[in-house]
Amino acid sequence: LKLFKFAFPNENVRCLSTVGHFGFECFPYQLVNRSLQRGFSFNILCVGETGIGKTTLINTLFNTNLKDSKSSHFHSTVGLKVKIYELQESNVHLKLTVVKTVGFGDQINKEASYLPVVEYIDAQFEAYLQEELKIKRSFFDYHDSRVHVCLYFISPTGHSLKTLDLLTMKSIDSKVNIIPLIAKADTISKSDLQKFKSRIMHELNSSGVQLYQFLEDDDAAAQANTSTSGLLPFAVVGSMEEVKVGKRMVRGRHYPWGVLQVENENHCDFVKLRDVLLCTNMEDLKEKTHSYHYECYRYRKLKTMGFTDVGPDNKPVSFQETYEFKRQEFQDQCQREEEELKQKFMQRVKEKETAFKDAERELQDKFEHLKKVQQEEIMKLEEEKSKLEEEIISFCKMKAASEAPYSQVTNMRKDR
Ligand code: GTP
């Protein structure tokens, strides 16, 4: 077009807009196409007491019936149930991972109830870090199970937060994006709900619990998010039941006094939550998980492993240098341990040797003693033997002497 204008500057040129896209304006379309081909993944952690409505809310959010069995109230410890679902809406594929607490808040001693949740979140970070540190990485088909959002279900007591809730949220707030929800909000009156919400927010703020901060950089999203933040904690109601309201069928809960419409913003904050999770903030939740929470985990982990970016002299240290240093340190330690082991071994050998020598000497002494005793015995016996022999000789002599006169008499008689 420019060339044309240059060639015919005074021509009255009719401009045609292009039908397709050219140049780098196509970049976003490439991204969309690639994302559609690859599909999306989203990992949700639902923390809340047994039967508080976790499954129902997830079903309502994704407008599907994700099969799941009910949990019992008699688990001796808190556990986590992980389910992966493949969902499709028009040509968008979603790999949804839902992790739910089992037996949360059911034990008499709830002191360590939050630990399995913390351990699960850390384990997913650790798995990702291990993949990242591999020589041959395969992120293309790697199932990234890091938790993108934690929906924290608060009991609709209308009173205040439980200690367990505060403790759990405080222990995971630096590891995951927390969005607090008041579950089964249809069980609280409108005025009570407002007071309950402000009490919860006050408690969370005074305990320093960090909640997910809604997007602020995009103008439209920022506007939506400021109104959204004011609604926290979202008062939600879940239901897959179709109820007739006028001529329309809506999802809601039917009560003797009327119908609660799940998707009516005057009845509850379900629509707001769905908008946040699926329409406006899903990518931001994933981004924050990767660039903030995972980064913090990675930093802490590599630091404890001895990796650092700057040395003691404040000069940058490369990964290679740190590795070499660590390897040398490890080799030195191995050598030290080997030396220690050798010395210990030699010491023990010496100890054993002296013990054997002592035992040998003892045996020798015993043997000598016995030999001596035996020789003395033999000498005694020899003496007694010679004494006896002497006695026998003298006896024989005596006998011969006594027999001599008698033989003379008998000989004289024979002569006669
Ligand atoms: P577990 O997985 O067994 O811990 O239960 P859960 O937390 O997934 O609860 P679930 O969704 O199975 O709901 C338990 C019961 O609460 C069911 O009878 C639901 O119909 C009911 N329920 C769920 N959501 C709501 C709600 O918003 N309001 C009311 N009033 N009842 C609800």
**Major sheet: arrangement of strands:** 2-3-1-4-5-6
Low-confidence stretches: none
Which ligands appear in the coordinates?
Answer: guanosine-5'-triphosphate
Record field, number of beta strands = 9
- H/E element sequence: HHEHEEHEHEHHEEEEHHH
Q: What's the helical proportion of residues? A: 40-55%
The helix/strand class is: alpha/beta
Largest sheet report: 6 strands, mixed
Helix run count: 10
**Proportion of beta-strand residues:** 5-15%
Mean pLDDT: 85
Shape: elongated
The rounded Rg comes to 47 Å
* Terminal-residue CA separation: 189 Å
Describe the structure.
There is one protein chain. With 416 residues, the protein is α/β, with parallel strands linked by helices. The protein contains 10 helices and 9 strands. The strands form 2 sheets. Strands 2-3-1-4-5-6 form a 6-stranded mixed sheet, with helices on both faces. Strands 7-8-9 form a 3-stranded antiparallel sheet, with no helix packed on it. α8 packs across α9. The longest helix has 97 residues, at 319-415. It is elongated and about 195 Å long. It binds guanosine-5'-triphosphate. Guanosine-5'-triphosphate is lined by residues 50-56, 70-71, 100, 184, 186-187, 237-238. Residues 50-56, 70-71, 100, 184, 186-187, 237-238 line the site of guanosine-5'-triphosphate. Residues 38-304 form the Septin-type G domain. Belongs to the TRAFAC class TrmE-Era-EngA-EngB-Septin-like GTPase superfamily. Septin GTPase family. Septins polymerize into heterooligomeric protein complexes that form filaments. InterPro entries: G_SEPTIN_dom, P-loop_NTPase, Septin.
